[in-house]
Amino acid sequence: MADQEEEDLRTALRMSMQSSPPEPKRSKPRDGGAPVESPEDLRRMKRELMAAAAEKRLLETSVSFPSPSQSPSPSKATADKNPVNSADSVRKEVDFGVKEGSSGKELSIEEANELFSMVFGSGVSKDILAQWSNQGLRFSCDPETSMGLVQHEGGPCGVLATLQAFVLKHLLFFPNEIGKVTSNVPQNLDSGRLSKSQYVASDNFSSLTEDAKARALVKSMDEILFMCGDKKRAVIATLNIVGLNTEGFAKNEIIAKALEGLTIETGSDLQKILRIDTYTSETIALQKLHTALPVFQSRMGALLFLISALLSRGLDSIQADRDDPSLPLVTAPFGHASQEIVNLLLCGQAVPNVFDGRMDLGGGMFLKGISMSVEVGFLTLLESLNFCKVGQHLKCPKWPIWVVGSESHYTVLFALDTSVQDENELEERESQIRRAFDAQDQSGGGGFISVEGFHQVLREAGIRLPSEKLDHLCSTGFIVWSEFWQVILDLDKSLGGLKDSSGLMGKKVFDLYHFNGIAKSDINGSHATSGAETLVQRPRLTKLKVSVPPRWTPEEFMADVVVSSGPGGNESSGKDTEVTKPEPSQHAPLVDCIRTRWSRAVCNWVGDPPSIV
Q: Are 13 and 51 in contact (CB under 8 A)?
């Protein structure tokens, strides 16, 4: 009997280690208080638990791409509290409308109606619903834009652009973690994370493998969902379809066939097709996302990811984040993603504003903005039109990647050089003086201080003003920032000022890239066919050369300032610097967005102007 038991146990373990294991036999559930009737029952239970534990170890060890931030113990996963159910949730075959034997939880009809109403409202058009149920998460087939997600329908661009920004973060700055070509891995790399101040990524996007892009996409989805879940949980919404354990192209065919003729017009439609899994382990959630990737690549992908983010945050928390919970998250009449959706995916909270912190309106009323630093940022054309003010959290993210908003579309701006946001010596000096001045400003931001406070500023900032200038500034009994700043600009650097006769000190020259995921005709991507040009329908990627003069450079000097032809970064006035005449400035609405981050930036590009619509 003992030999037979050991043989059964070895058989169970072999079954659990197969790449596509058959469904292990399970005994019928027992009542919680029922006693075990015989020693055979004890042995059978032992074999089942051992096999289930082996299945759990298989899931843990099969994840080949850990989270960049943390990898909590898989034993903490909500989905894995019962190891048997955890393994089954990856393999079980399900069908639309089937309530038993399915993978994950089925939303109640009340939850589904609340979700549908929150996203689309009550009077949504069929066109908007079609836009949101016909957009998958798929990369461009064009080699030059192969790192980009393609948008075919209007509407979900806010979801795609924000996810694209995180994908670029992993492709550009975590190449070793997603298996990118080794030529793009820096020499100073250690333990997976890059040194932000020293790293310049490669622009050889055509070298990206499909596997690397898939890993970057899955890691980005996992990162965003856990951010929405306060780093404690991620909810993954997938479809209830038979045959998702099938490998290769057959799985895509099964999904496509199941979606034939499917329309989403009510909460009841969502309730029939959605299945929800909750995870507290990033490692296990990554495995689930990797398994379900074909579902997210299907035409329902963008909507499923948005639903996953909303459920990860929690519908009650989403409504609490918003200033006006009565409005739908998808805006009428064109079905665009609201700023609340974009902010949810950027910072994990569905706040409607882009300024830092909260704005107190008095009477216990306030508006909610961004309360924390973010991985990737946000710029908007609306700021250049004075409709809003983007705060420092979104303008200065951890990585040089920004979602760019226009009146009707979202795109992505990024740099390969992580130092483009670094302040040079003179900018740091300006910031130091301004901080010292603001610390003495008791006017509520009015920009003036007392004489006593002014002397404190001079001491803290190490500024030695000639007596005649000091007497002039103090003659009225208070000092205005604008007058003080003009004196600093004319004061020699040896006395603590910022006088720069050449105009080159503090100048920046660097490259930015702009990606528009919506497929358009592109003359830059035309191919010669029998001597003729053929317009190519593809996303747009534009490289911009950006030159930023020091913020204190007089306007009349900017037209004649020379530009170093050396490599990008902060320029100096050294003897070996080669100097050439600047190229004429080019303009497009994107330049106005860039200038909200780098004031008075001068931009140039080759070919068609970058489009943010």
A: yes
Contact 457, 437 (CB under 8 A): yes
- The low-confidence residues of the chain, meaning pLDDT below 70, are 1-103, 179-198, 242-249, 444-446, 500-506, 521-536, 550-583
- 3-state secondary structure (DSSP) of residue 411: strand
Task: Report the 10 Å Cβ neighbour count for 310.
Answer: 22
The pLDDT, as a whole number, for residue 426 is 75
> d(Cα 454, Cα 472) in Å, to the nearest integer?
13
Largest CA distance in the chain: 105
- The pTM of this model reads 0.71
pLDDT in tens, 207-250: 999 999 999 999 999 999 999 999 999 999 999 886 666 666 67
- Per-position b or e across 509-526, b if 16+ CB within 10 A of its CB: bbbbbbbbbbbeebeebe
DSSP label at residue 570:
E
Q: How far apart are CA 285 and CA 70, in angstroms?
A: 13
* Residue closest to 549 by CA, chosen among 508, 582, 585: 508
Radius of gyration of the chain (CA): 29
Closest C-alpha to 422, from 548, 515, 541: 548
d(C-alpha 171, C-alpha 575), whole Å? 38
User: Cα separation of 537 and 103, whole Å?
Assistant: 38
Measured in degrees and rounded to the nearest 5, phi and psi for residue 126 equal -65, -30
Return d(Cα 52, Cα 579) in angstroms, integer. Answer: 70
